[in-house]
Amino acid sequence: MDRAEVLHQEELLSQRMVLLCSGVLLCLILLQSLSRGMHVLWWLPLVLHLVALYTVHQWCRNVRPYWLSLTALSGLWGSIAFLAWHAGGLNSPLLAGWPLVVTGATVLLGKPQGLFALGFSALAAVLLLQVAGIEVAPQHAGLVLILSLLTYFLMALSILQMYRMSVQQIRAQQVQHLKIQQAMEISEARNQAILDALPDVVFRVTRDSTILDVNIGEQTRWAIRASTLLGQKVTQFVQDETRLAEALSWVLSGDGMQTQELQLCHPELGQRSVESRMVAVGEDHALLFWRDITERKKIEFDRLDRLRRMEGLDRFMLILAQPEMEHPALLQAMTHHTAEILQGFCVVEIFPSERLTSDCTNESPTPDWHRCDLPLVLHGIKRGVVTVWRSPQTGPFSAEEQSTLQTLVDRTGLTLTNRELDLRNRAQAEELRKANEELEVRIRERTHELARANEQLQELTIRDGLTGIFNRRHFDERLEQEVRRLPRSEKPLGLLLCDIDFFKRYNDHYGHPQGDLCLKQVARLLQDTFRRAGDVVARYGGEEFAVILPNTSLEQLSHLSQRLREQLLQLALPHAFSEVAPHVTLSVGGVQATREDAITAQGLIQAADQAMYCSKHSGRNRGTLRPWVVQEAELPSKPFS
Fold it and tell me: Transmembrane region positions (predicted)?
């Protein structure tokens, strides 16, 4: 509520108070005149009352409601008191003033205060009736005056309270209105600051795209006064007027915000790209936000162009990584990808006469075209030149494009160099492979020869040179192994020692060559007799032979000795100078040991040797077999006859 409205309300309140008080007094005077006749003194309260109200209305403008209310009520109850004093008694028509007073309180104060005045008046009337009866004597007029004054005083308090409440409400409304106005000013200033800070141009347009308001932000860089755009059509600034008009129609029809990119014909900046956002503000108005995105579109275009170059470069790198690509195909691929990546005309010249071209422009270069030349270097030597032309419409080569071209040429030169080196390395590797194969063949042959020689040497180290059976050294090694194995085996171990009877006489009479032949035949006979796996037949020394028989019991030793006798008898080697038989015979000594026996190799040989000498002492051409635990006992001799 503004100040003018407050003054208007105060004016209405003053007029109502004057009219109410004047009407009450006139009614009372008329009633009294009709009852008792007209008296000039009765008009005195009305005149004084009207003069007081007019004076207050003219001289107390700043506090008019308060003083007017006080004056009206004071004059009212003073006038009624004056009239009641002269009239006196309950028979006076002054009693008709009570309903008028109640009605005035209701009009001024409201319904609750009017009901209060009515109740209080009724209470006063009841008291007067009980005290004075029906007829009120003049001496009771003072009591009537006191009750009237009390009633008017309460009415005055009610009206003053109403006034204070009205004033407080008016002041509160003024403060609230001031706060709202300040908030609106702050909000408007803030919104204006936001609009100024935005890099947007904001239009408020009508349905036919007429510009009603415009705000040009400080960051828009539009050197145009906003006032020059008012009243113009916003569609006249864009190339595609139809799209903008359709979007405006959709927004005003309730389709929500519309966003689109437009090409703007700026009167000073020329062709610009703007992002247009449009929202409705009512049924016939819309807000347009235009943001200049020309620089952003340029950055996006540069980014896409850079991405295209990088993708082309990646494809070319994949081609370079193919080992089966020959030099001509590789150079042609480099020419094609260079022209594609840089959007130009590429020529590659390889000294002395090779020339490759590739065109992505469908035009022939002219002198005004931009040109870029780079050398093609192989093995540190300039082997060619890569030349790229580009039309003036495309623009000159940027530093990044020159770097890309340099990368293409350098990678191509490096790849060609590596291919040549790879071919040389492959040729050298093939030569080395063939040489290695030949060397490996020679090494395998030599290794095989060495293996055979080692085998022969090994055989020579373990074989007897005359008879071909194992020698004494190998016999001792195998006997040690069998003795160490015997405690872990459940099978017994047998050992035979054989000596040719009267062999010295055989050599003396038949000669040493014949003696050597006799030794060979006896050795072959022993090998044929003892052929089990693990059996070891060895020449122990001179005409003595030894046989190691693993897993052989005493009965098996006896059986093998008997078979040896039979085969030697069948061989029938003549020995005319033997004392026991006309053919060659053997004296055999054997011993058998088990895992329970604490034997050694030397002890086992000594036991077998004792058994063999026992056969010799018993007449030769026989065998003596003993278990290890009964070395002193002698088995019966069995002559080989």
Answer: 12-34, 40-59, 66-87, 115-134, 140-163
Say if residues 492 and 594 touch (Cβ distance below 8 Å). Answer: yes
Contact yes or no for 500/517 (Cβ under 8 A): no
Q: How far apart are CA 189 and CA 186, in angstroms?
A: 5
Distance CA(454)–CA(276), nearest Å, equals 98
Distances (CA, A) of 471 to 253, 466, 468: 121, 10, 8
Task: Look at residue 216 and give its three-state secondary structure.
Answer: strand
Q: Which candidate, 211, 218, 206, places its Cα nearest to that of 237?
A: 211
Query: Other C-beta atoms within 10 Å of 512: how many?
Result: 10
Q: Give the pLDDT confidence score for residue 475 in this predicted structure.
A: 92
Mean of pLDDT over the chain: 76
Which residue ranges form the domains of the chain, and what is each CATH number? 3-173 (no CATH), 198-292 (3.30.450.20), 300-426 (3.30.450.40), 472-630 (3.30.70.270)
Residue 550 CA neighbour count, 13 Å, CB half: 18
Question: Over the stretch 11-25, which tens digit does the pLDDT of each residue have?
Answer: 565 566 666 666 666
Give the Cβ contact number of residue 274 at 10 Å.
22
Amino acid identity of 332? Answer: Q
Total residues belonging to the chain? 641
Residues 6 or more apart in contact with residue 539 via CB below 8 angstroms: 464, 466, 467, 469, 470, 471, 472, 519, 523, 545, 546
Q: Say which residues have a Cβ less than 8 Å from residue 534's Cβ, sequence separation at least 6.
A: 550, 551
pLDDT of residue 455: 81
User: d(Cα 549, Cα 536) in Å, to the nearest integer?
Assistant: 7
Nearest residue to 518 (alpha-carbon basis) of 476, 568, 461 = 568
Q: Is 96 exposed, middle or buried (0-12, 13-18, 19+ CB in 10 A)?
A: middle
Name which of 496, 471, 603, 599 is nearest 550 in CA terms: 496
Distance between CA atoms of residues 389 and 387, nearest Å: 7
Q: Residue for token digits 């008017």?
A: 152
pTM: 0.39
DSSP state of 635: P
CA-nearest of 38, 159, 144 to 97 is 144
In this structure, the strands spanning 370-378 and 623-627 are unpaired
**DSSP states of 133-184 as a string?**
-SS--GGGHHHHHHHHHHHHHHHHHHHHHHHHHHHHHHHHHHHHHHHHHHHH
pLDDT < 50: residue spans in the chain: 1, 63, 89, 91, 132-145, 630-641
pLDDT, tens digit (0-9, with 9 covering 90-100), for 71-102: 665 566 566 656 655 555 454 555 555 555 55
371: amino acid identity, one letter: R
